[in-house]
Structure prediction request, 225 residues.
Amino acid sequence: MEGLIWRVGNGTHIIDLWADPWVGDEDRRFIQSNRVDGLNVEGDLIDEARREWRVEVVEQHFNERDQRCILSIPLSSRNLQDELTWAYSKYGVYSVKTAYMLGKGGNSEDFHRAWGILWSLEVSLKVRHYCGAFIYTNLLLVRELVRRHLVDVSCYPCCLSEVETQHHMLFFCSSIASLWGDLGCHSLLPRIAEEGMCETLERWSKLDLTLVQKGCYIMWNVWAM
Prediction:
């Protein structure tokens, strides 16, 4: 079904490598390499003891595009289950509104255009994947842990004053708001509160490329703190 994508958790052998949507770039959400006997689910590509991708297996059996997509997916150190999510809503939950927008074609085109912009940037794989997860609003936030009854408080841990949302965490929290200006990236922020990530990337694509790449690295570092 258009709009669904698997979020890799602890690699519990649920995701079919070849048939399920679980990777993403401008070429959509599926593996493109030829099927390999003995490799069936995403757990076959994961070193369970080290919680890392089996890089040598990925490089041996997958084409360059698939290697980039797979190795850029961060693996959870928590015991989170693989989860099928709705790619086009804010928290991965299906809604009639987002299904209608997808049916109209606008959302799908916006996401694919945003992926094209993202993959044109000269940033590391982990930063590119992080921004891609932000496009799909597929980041695991504290409020999602609250929804799953894993923690009790939904405030952003760095300030404990506001509910953790992507925009608060990356741009507006008092603990990091001045960082954007201090690093010369204040021109990336106007209108960002009213935008989705697709709109933000489209606007950023008209600005200086080096500035945009720096902004992507800032987002990655803030999220990784």
